[in-house]
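Let us begin with a simple case.
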Amino acid sequence: MARELDMEPDSLRFDYSEDSLSPAYNVTAAQSKELATLLTLAERLRVHVSAITPDASALQRFLPFLPSHQQCLAWRDNEQWLWATRYRWGRKLAVGMTSAKELAAALSVDPASVAICGEGGFDPWEAVSVRQPPLPPPGGDFAIALGLALRKAY
């Protein structure tokens, strides 16, 4: 993997997670220096870190809740699109990419297969079976936080 990324093998750290739907493992790589910076800050703040999860990968937790024809979930803020499919996830800058169709073209997927988190699209709160008031407004504002919270739910 280091060769494919054109990086020194010692500069990467890997995490392996079991695929819940097939007999396989998913591999995530991160730069050692990025993790060291984060862990140093956590130590200084006396924060116990139990997991470090890339934000876009949290969207994968919602894929089982999508209709069968939608295989990609996307979330957008002012600066970026975060997206996830069953086997890939990532981020694209929002500059010049204002619609789901443009994102689908950039990802080389069928536009009809992309669900957008937010009003009029996929509501991440639908993945939570029991909700108690006060409830936040429907939409995608809490999609990443909910995805991280659901990491072992399915």
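The second case is a distinct protein. As before, the sequence precedes its structure tokens.
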Amino acid sequence: MEGMDGTWTPALIRARLYPSGVGRAEGYPGVVLDPAADPVPVQLFASADLPEQWDRLDDFEGPGYRRVPVQVEVPVEEETVTAWIYELVPEAVPAEG
């Protein structure tokens, strides 16, 4: 998020959490959105700079992730907002078992 002004707020999404992502994010958690899943804590980043940075962020995340809209619960604001998140693509989801 280098070079962007903005704020971070604790939030929750409904997703399945995988402890290790893929590609450049290997070793970092990855998620697959699932409205029936337990809440997963996340940090919501808000910035007026985001629209001009999406291409750079998409390139950074790489082919193992896709940017998708998500409903985010923001407890401190007592509201739900729509935001963007990078979700693991189906081919990158670790096999279970």
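The helical segments are 50-61. Residues 19 and 29 are 4 Å apart (CA to CA).
Keep these points in mind for the review questions at the end of the chapter.
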